[in-house]
Design a protein that fits this description.
The structure holds three protein chains of three kinds. By secondary structure, chain A is of the alpha+beta class. Chain A is built from nine helices and eight strands. Helices cover about 35% and strands about 20% of the residues of chain A. Chain C has one domain: Formate dehydrogenase/DMSO reductase fold. The chains are: A alpha+beta, B alpha+beta, C mainly alpha. At the B-C interface, strand 5, helix 5, helix 6 and strand 9 of B face helix 6 and helix 7 of C.
Chain lengths: ~300, ~325, ~450
Amino acid sequence: MKKRYLSLLLIFVITLRLSAQQEWIVPAENLSKLSTFAFSDSTRKAGMNLYITNCKSCHGDPGKNNVIKLVPPPVDPASDRMQANTDGGMYFKISQGRMPMPTFKNILSPTDVWVVISYLRSFNPKYAQEVAPKVLTGAMVQNVKIHLNWLKEKDQVQAVVSGTKDKIEQPVAGAEVKLFAKRYFGNLLIDEARNTDAQGQVLFNFPKDLPGDSTGYVQLLARLSDEEAYGESKSETTLQIGVPTYKPPLNEQRAMWNVVQKTPIWLLLSYTFTVLAVWAFIFYVLFQIRAISKSGLSKDQDTID
Amino acid sequence: MSNNTDPINENEAQGNENTRRAFFKKFGLIGAVAATGGAAIYSGYRYEESKPDRDLVKVLTADNRLVEVPRDQVKDVKVDLTRLQKLGREGLKGHRWVMVIDLAKCRNARQCVAACQNAHHLRPYEYHINTLVMQESKSTAPYYMPKTCQHCDNPPCVAVCPVDATFKRQDGIVLIDNERCIGCRFCIAACPYSARMFHWEEPLMAEEDKGKVYNIELNVPQRKGTISKCLFSSDRLREGKLPYCVSACPNGVYYFGDENQDAVTNGTTKETHRLSELLRVNGGYHLMPELGTKPRVYYLPPKNRLFEFVDPREQNKNQEKV
Amino acid sequence: MSSEINTGFLKDKRLDTIAADILRPVGITQGFLVWMAFLSISLAGCIYAYYIQCDKGLIVTGLRDYVSWGMYIANFVFFVATSLVGMLISSVLGMIGFKWVKPIARIAEIIAVAFAAIAGLVIVSDMGRPERLPYVFMYGRIQSPILWDVTVVTTYLVLSTLLYFIPLIPDLAISKGRIGHTPKWLQSTYETLSVKWDHTPKQYQILLKLVRILLILIIPTAFAIHTVTSWLFAVTTRPGWDSTIFGPYFLTGAFVAGSAAVVIMMYFVRTNYKLEKYLTDYHFDMMGKLIVLVSIVYLYFNINEFLIPAYKLKTAEAIHLQELFVGEHAFLFWTVQLSGLILPIILLLFKFFRKPFPIFIIGTVMLIASWFKRLLIVVPTQENPFLPRQFVPDAWMVYQPTIVETAITMGTILMAVMIITVLVKFFPVIPIWEVAEEECHTNNDQPKV
């Protein structure tokens, strides 16, 4: 009896834990976040492409409920449960992720996340978008430009941020800037995120040992963190600030494991020499069999037997 | 095309063929690419549908540059085997791929295994990558270890191949050419990591793949009586994408990148780290370094693990009992 | 072998007797036809098994990803090993000057030719894509031990064939007038193959020179062929194969297997062809002593191969040795070591066991044991790789040969037996001229030593 009671308790606790795990609570301040642009057919189409590359492998085709089996299970985007999220809730969940959903903030830009949300909302006929008011604190900065310089004596990269405010081009102060070096599969954060000073300038310490291409060029990318305030602002520059890197192809040297054209010389010579020598003798023997035949005929025709 | 204002197309009047020539000239691709009728373009062009108003597509050229091409300039070329074999054997210039596997994060989700088998048309028990349950000794803690081909810089499997069917490319990847393989299985015998598999019977999707042109970088169609193995998803690398297993992992176990750039990117978080830094901070190591194989796969030790260890074999046994 | 030949024996009457004795069984007989029919029908079954394998793939064998080399490779090593005896008997012993090897040299050479010829087919039976065999020649990588193996097996086969054929030429000339009871085509074959041999001193001089070249050439080739075969295993890092003495270990093992095969064939030839006069108890006695010698050398290498790793017990080696000594393969391992090596050494020390029939039985047991010994070299190592075997079907864990696989292996043995049968039945199995020369030479010209 006692055992039974215990097991009941256990089940209760487990259920509680499970439901806690199922529920994904978004911090209140994030719930009301809104997109700064209106969703349109073009954002929905772009969102679909992003969805196919990044989300479909787990969330399946919206409305078909063909999600993959994970714990907790992914939710079908067309379902009521998904659509019950506020826009801000969706934004938070996509950006932050939780086990087993990946964090997308490094994969998708804020605009990309909103674009994906615009696609997800297209499965909800009752949805009516609420766009964030255009006026934002200290904003109205347009045409943001980031200029990157190399300060050789200090091993630093200087970023100068300027933008048009009230139709006058002026420095953007107090904006967070991130500097990246472009690598094959993603962008490597250089130093850390820093804020611009009154002149719109910010300095990044650049590592002395970062490999560049064969002549030392590194492709840099600078970006303002607050995309909502400044729009999608990034700048790409190539500077000769890396360590010139030329590493020869890995299959260059002669080796036992390389292709036949790259056989070690000693092996090639000894193999060829041995085979040729042995077969030279074999052919000599074969020709001598002919000599046997001839030397029989040229002598007496009468055989002994 | 008529309403296209792209300056590239201003000499359109000279006829389509000329336009194409002029265009290629502009990008310095007239040589091999034009000569083979743009065969290079096969290697993966991606529509940038997010910008439908500009009618350009991104195309990856044979020398691995991403260029933008007006959509109507792209001609679908028939994929031809010789071309594929040549590209596949050459590899990507200037790169040395590396993988870092963080054992602290692996909880045996086996998503990597599934994604790999799906991409390469394998059965559930045929592995290019397998996650193993490891325990060094009775007193040490068990852990999960994803095991791929180590793409050794001194590959014992390649050394013994009698026909150049398996080979090491300039970017470090050890590939297998199942158009060449004679099925002697000497490489299986020589590999200390048991990384290779053999098609003992007709492959899983033999029917579906019939008539497909063999892609050496994907090893599809798989072929009966030949070897198959992990390819570091070289078809994906060519497109600038991370390998199948790396992108499929839900737990951030895998990092993949280029040793020449000293950078690896995590497949789950997509965060890029410096390879040297990652290995230094976490104590990266090679599997069985005493064998002198010089692997291109690094492991980070299973310390401070995020997940409780559950022995999948015990789990199965218990299920069977019930 | 002396460089001068006294052709006096050709006029000696004793040549006629010897030739008549040796040539009596030559030709097509009822027994031969029945035996060949039996072999052919059995072989047809085995070829059907191979057809199944080609159709379905190697899935019809017991081989899987972990144990991917099994019976076929063991059989290949066995074939190469057995064929080596041709070199040992005719070359090493012959050149040292042992006269007693003369009548059995050709038997050893027949075994060499048959087993070396089939060894190539055995390796094809193991290939996943046998139709791509030409690739080995088209795209051969000379860094691969397989290519070295292909090169030396081919060379050894050619050398053995020549070493069988060239000393046969005078016999063909002697025989062509004396085999009236055989079909026409066989007689014309004799005519062609005897390359107008007229027993001139010049011809003997060339012949002896050629034989000496071949005898010298075949020693390094034979060493190479089996050393390279051992390297197929020794170039890997696997416990049980990663050994520096694998070359001599295989080579000495080959002499054991080959000598046993020679004894078996000697016994068959002696009893079936009534050649007791030429293959005497003395020859069996000497073969018995030879077997003891080569077995002791092989035992020495066995002790080296197992004692040293067993002393150190490195992790992977320890698992491997445990499996062999007390584990899954212990029964087979100890049976093979006792019946194929230790017991023969002890028994053959006694004169009684060196008599034809007892040594024939011992030889048969040894030859079978040496086949299984190869299986024990090939399989257990692969069952214990460095990394654990997990998440694969249970059937993959243990190697269990299938019927198809066994049939194909049997087929290769049948083919070797067929080649031996044909050579033994159509051509003189004991060198007539050498025996006659030896007999006349020792009896007439010189006092017996």
